[in-house]
Amino acid sequence: MADVLLSLTLPNDVAQHVEDLLLSRPIWSPASPPASPKATVVVPLVEPGELVAGHSPRTQIRMVGPEENMRAVLALLKTQLPRANLFYWLVPVIEMGRL
Fold it and tell me: In CATH, what is the architecture of 3-92?
């Protein structure tokens, strides 16, 4: 099965819960710095506080692995944190390596 990149963009106050969930499963190893406030990802604002402020501080977590594993991560998050206000996307990995 081909690898995919799972990108999660979530409120900062939820990030630690997500990281703890992922680290509790040894086969999933997230590796990502916090998202830049100037990130180009457009995430709809839905919480009242976000709408009033016009923005929401976010953390981004990226993971690469087999599609089946990344879909299992999403299923876990949907079950454990159903109202996390988490935005995600999956994209195919064409090539990966280290230089």
Answer: 2-Layer Sandwich (3.30)
Contact 6, 15 (CB under 8 A): no
By C-alpha distance, which of 58, 28, 38, 46 is closest to 83? 46
Tokens of 73: 């991560």
Residue whose pair of structure tokens reads 């690469």 in the numeric block: 64
DSSP 3-state of 38? coil
pLDDT tens digit sequence for 7-65: 998 888 888 888 888 888 766 655 444 444 444 444 555 566 655 555 567 888 888 88
CA distance 70 to 66: 6
**Stated length of the chain:** 99
